[in-house]
Amino acid sequence: MRVCVAVPPVRDFYFTPRRFSALGAKTVCKLLETAGHQVSFCNFPVRGKKGRGMKLPDGMEYLREFAMPGERGPLTFFTRYQHFGPSFAECAEEVVAGEPELVLLSSFAFAYADQALELAREIKERRPGVGIAAGGAGGTAFPGDYLGQNGMGIDCIDLALVGEAEGAVVEFVERLERAENLDGLPGLCEGERSVCSRAPEWTEAGGLDFVWNVSLETSKNLHISTSLSRGCPRKCRFCSNFMAHGRQFRTVPLERVAKGLEELPMDKPIVLNFEDDNLLLAKDYWLEILDLCRARFPEITFRAENGLDYGLLDEEVVDELIDRGMERFDLSLGSADLDVLRAERRRGDLERLGRLVRRAAARGVPVVTYFICGLEGDSVDTVLGTLLFLAELPTQMGISMFYPVPGLPGFTDKRVFEKRPSALCAGSAAWPWTGSLTSAQLVTGFRLARFVNLGKRDGLSPEERELVELCRRERRLYTWVGKERRCVPAPGVDEEMVTSFFSC
Description:
Layout: E1 2-7, E2 10-12, H1 23-34, E3 38-43, E4 52-53, E5 71-72, E6 82-84, H2 88-97, E7 102-107, H3 113-126, E8 131-135, H4 136-141, H5 143-146, E9 159-161, H6 169-177, E10 188-190, E11 212-217, E12 222-226, E13 229-230, H7 241-245, E14 250-251, H8 254-261, E15 270-274, H9 283-296, E16 301-303, E17 308-309, H10 315-323, E18 329-334, H11 338-343, H12 350-362, E19 367-373, H13 380-391, E20 396-401, H14 415-418, H15 439-456, H16 462-474, E21 478-481, E22 486-489, H17 495-503
Parallel strand pairs: 1-3, 1-7, 7-8, 8-9, 12-15, 15-16, 17-18, 18-19, 19-20
Antiparallel strand pairs: 2-6, 4-6, 5-21, 9-10, 11-12, 13-14, 21-22
Helix pairs in contact: 2-3, 8-9, 10-12, 13-15
């Protein structure tokens, strides 16, 4: 069967190509190719280097008060909503040019569900008879959104596949090829049924394979992404991983990783990024993987930009990772407020985090520590406490603004998501989902994190030093506007929150 696996363009304020690895789509391609099908792969978001500006989608107009036209520089909030990838019409033309009998759309996140729907509509207009199925995180979270139950009058996606692809996609395609009934396939939703007739089956470890993708190529190296594990037994309330991959932790067999490494290109040094959710649950396995990689590619270096659970690290493991080529540590904190963490069913050990950050810094390895702003138990004080805690450590901070997906605690009523665009479920949206903070306070936390990061950077320009000093002196947040870098007060911030920060 001729199958096109496509990742739709992305619409958001920013886009990080090296993180958009499309590993789920690549897994589907590999499974179908191994089964003998003719497969084409279109990863549309990474086409081109820059996005195209567009108007804010319906429901996001509230962000206008926080954005300043012409704003630039290190303290900016998101100022330009963009389309990344070719137009939907261009994408559809490329898809139908291959005359596929089936199109599989892979949705990276529920936040981009609208893009999958729009691409499906464009494809159907050009090739009405082609079957379209959608899967990935978006379809898993809310299959009814894809099956015309979203109030948008869009019913151009025929089927939704929930959960992991390995359990059903090959049999699904082969039944279609034989024109057989699809009933009983795990994780399949169709027509008016937004509930699976049979729950998805999580792939056994022996069924996992080494899948990788070149996410970015520079003049110096290749950035390659992979994921070697599935599932997480942790029950953090803000995380939706369990819906797509279950609770059982599994790893790709070592022999398949070793074989897969032989496929990697050798023309440039590799930066290998692990997108796993919790690979530290198998520390010894991971260390062996790094050894396998360095045996074949002596210059290879590593990252884990999805974030590592620092509670599973100690100074010895930090050293072992650095010795094997870890070039940066991305640590997942959540919050520095222990009450907030307990409410989210997450452990916290701030003393341990401090030791680990200092150990990595002493070894000359940069650290980024991530936290979430706007969790249910958050307040201005807890956010400021987290900012100030991280300000004292030799780490940059990465701030994410909380966003839910259907199925998370507190967001089980899917009608909540039918009333608002899925784009609000993106970390750049600053929508006050939990009600713990206002949009202004979320944006203020974001700008303050950028201010702290700027103050820690080495080699600041005279203009950057002047900006930092002005903010500290005036106890206000300023930003640059225009090519001349004119300093003006940052718009829409919570001034009381800013004053409290500078008073500490």
